[in-house]
Amino acid sequence: MGHRYRLREIAQQSGLSLATVDRVVNGRPGVRAGTVAEVEQAIAELDRQASQLRIAGRTFLVDLVMQTPARFSAAVRQALEAELPHLRPAVIRSRFHLQESSSPAEVVRTLRRVAQRGSQGVILKAPDTPEVTAAVGELVDRGIPVVTLVTDLPASRRLAYVGIDNRAAGATAAYLVTSWTADHVGTVLMTLSNTTFRGEDDRAAGFRDTLASLAPGRAVRAVTGTDGLDASMPEAVGAALRADPAIDAVYSIGGGNVATLEAFRRAGRDCRVFIAHDLDEDNAALLRQRRLSAVVHHDLRDDVRRICRIILQAHGAVPGPVVSLPSPIQVVTPYNEPSAFR
Q1: At residue 319, what are phi and psi to the nearest 5 degrees?
Q2: Going by C-beta distance under 8 Å and a sequence separation of 6 or more, which residues neighbour residue 142?
Q3: In sequence order, what are the beta bridge partners of 273?
Q4: Which of 62, 210, 235, 313 has its CA 20 to 30 A from that of 26?
Q5: Reported CATH class of domain 1-45
Q6: Alpha-carbon distances of 300 from 9, 27, 63, rounded to whole Å
Q7: How far is CA 224 from CA 66, 127, 177, 247, in A?
Q8: Confidence (pLDDT) at 342
Q9: 249-255: average pLDDT
Q10: What is the pLDDT of residues 168-186, one digit of tens each?
Q11: With helix as H, strand as E and coil as C, how does 68-83 read?
Q12: Which of these CATH numbers, 3.40.50.2300, 3.40.50.1220, 3.30.420.40, 3.40.1280.10, describes 166-297?
């Protein structure tokens, strides 16, 4: 296994013991395939972050824990790794624990593994459940600050929340839908990945309340429990279309938009307006194809930059109080796509 790092560096990055890393690197028998993959991942992460290791300063190890479709975790990971070389005065290394679908119990197990291995901070996107809240408390008891991203855990002991005001984002989506379909009263299909995510629930509440104010009596049909995955979305959306022939607009809170549009195509139905969240790779392509009307977006690089600063503040590496402020909401159309996505 070729690499240019000390075994101790790889052990720290992977969270494995020095002896285990030694066995893997030297190709000794008796090592599980999963363990080999962890070491390979650690070396790959060190390779990607090698440029920032030349920066003088303290080194902090931060864990990104996310339950989210791969298209969004990839966007967050790309934003974080793009920011790492620009951070001052410290060097930040990152480890990634990314799952497309998992139970709160699995999230808790991941957080406890992080606590046992040690970390200088956790960036967390997870369901708002009592067991996850308790696991955050365990991290804090060990001196590990937790910052929630995109969806909050307000009852937990997290240090701060970074992301948009989700209720305001839902209200913005309702305004766009009603503005672009003012002459119509069809049902709006609202798709969520999972209602245990506080951020999605807040977006849905903001959307319903504002739609009721701007278009009284207009119906909303919710689809949830899909984890926002393209594999599970077609059947769920198809069932909703069969049940309600008046559906002609979509507010996508949890993603899976390629599959949602495919379900409309299979049903021979038109979608008059489609509002989505986050300018990930899928949504950027759909927007250019004019298959999405608009994307409610926020700058992930700015978000992760703020998170890293908060973690450094928690350790006294940079001055200033920790402040939770909502990220600016951007409405992106086919005519104002940010240059970074072109």
Answers
A1: -80, 170
A2: 115
A3: 249
A4: 62
A5: mainly alpha
A6: 28, 39, 16
A7: 19, 14, 20, 16
A8: 62
A9: 95
A10: 999 999 999 999 998 878 9
A11: CCHHHHHHHHHHHHHH
A12: 3.40.50.2300
